[in-house]
Amino acid sequence: MEKTIHSAKVISGLIITGVILLSVFIKGYTSKDGKDGAPEKVAAAPAKPAGVPVDVQVLRAQSLDDEMAVSGTLLAYQEVSISSELSRKVTAVYAKEGKAVSAGTLLFKLDDADLLAELEQLKQQEKLTLLNERRLKDLIDKEAAIQQDYDQAFTNLKVLQARIEQLKVTIAKTSIRAPFSGNLGIVNVHPGAFVTPGSPLALLTDNSRLKIDFAVPEKHANTLRPGDEVQYNVESSDKVFKARIVAHEAGLDQKTRTLLMRAVTNNSNRELLPGQSARLQLRLNNTGNALMVPNQALIPSSKGYSVFVVNNNTASFKPIEVGQRNAYSVHVTKGLAPGDTIITSNMLRLAPGAAVQLVSVH
């Protein structure tokens, strides 16, 4: 019985000792200001504001063809209005509208009956005059005639022969032929019509090649030369055609200060027609180290153009000078250098010195 009481006292003493130790332990965790004894948290540093998200492009030198667009007109390589040199009636029409003809092809025939009759008369006179000239020549050789009579007979013969040749030329003009190979247009006369000199009978056009006349500004008058190739397009086709410069005027037009140039293009398939307008792309020179900047990167102002350049994640404002441009980019002639990083988006949210965050780099 005493042993049981002793054990109960020991257990009670251990419980009291444990409570005391736990109190001491908890007190050690109590803060100086009486708050809960959890360890104090260190205050976090304020978050750095993120930069403006932007897309950028690193400039690299590239080859650039300096080009200029001008308008021109397609012209037939050869074109002539067929007409008569005589006032006569048309007896036959051999020309077929819209058909191709070769040089020398008979197109129209005029009445030549009276001319042929006159020619026959002169030929008969020539025979008689020739006999008289030969007889007098024999007499001169025999010293039976005077030289003056022979000279007169010889002259009469030559005058008559000249009249015959002149009449033959007139008769030849009654046969109107194609002066060169080409295509006939609309025929304006029919058999029985009376024509006079200059009356248009039909239009003959050589479209196997075409001429293109265009003007270039005074600044580029010495840039393009005969032999240079140019490209052009027309409204009726999506194809890009080629032509070669063959000549230019001797001087500038005093009113427009432009130089008229002429190029020739092949048209063997008759795809193009005279009178069409042509849009020519002229290659003036080549720049081997050009810097091209996207159009959306430009910031216009009354003083010109500027761009934002990135350096150490900071945007800075940089004025530039521009030259040739196309639908997507512009050539920067002054203000930038290869390796510069320019901002191509979100420029409205930027100011000089603003922090930026690079989203994409091109």
Layout of helices and strands:
Layout: H1 2-28, E1 52-58, E2 62-83, E3 88-93, E4 100-101, E5 106-110, H2 113-141, H3 147-172, E6 175-177, E7 182-184, E8 194-195, E9 200-217, E10 229-233, E11 241-248, E12 258-266, E13 277-294, E14 299-301, E15 304-311, E16 314-325, E17 329-334, E18 341-343, E19 356-361
Parallel strand pairs: 1-19
Antiparallel strand pairs: 1-18, 2-9, 2-13, 3-5, 3-8, 4-7, 5-6, 7-9, 9-12, 10-11, 10-13, 11-12, 13-17, 14-15, 15-16, 16-17
Helix pairs in contact: 2-3
Describe, in plain words, how this protein is organized in 3D:
- The structure is a single chain.
- By secondary structure, the chain is α+β, with helices and mostly antiparallel strands.
- It folds into 4 domains: 1-32; 54-64 and 288-361, conserved putative lor/sdh protein from methanococcus maripaludis s2 fold (Beta Barrel); 69-76 and 205-286, Elongation Factor Tu (Ef-tu), domain 3; 84-195, no CATH class.
- It is 23% helix and 40% strand.
- The protein is built from 3 helices and 19 strands.
- It has helices spanning 2-28, 113-141, 147-172, and strands at residues 52-58, 62-83, 88-93, 100-101, 106-110, 175-177, 182-184, 194-195, 200-217, 229-233, 241-248, 258-266, 277-294, 299-301, 304-311, 314-325, 329-334, 341-343, 356-361.
- The strands form 3 sheets. The protein has a 6-stranded antiparallel beta barrel with strand order 2-9-12-11-10-13. Strands 6-5-3-8 form a 4-stranded antiparallel β-sheet, with no helix packed on it. Strands 18-1-19 form a 3-stranded mixed β-sheet, with no helix packed on it.
- The two termini are 96 Å apart.
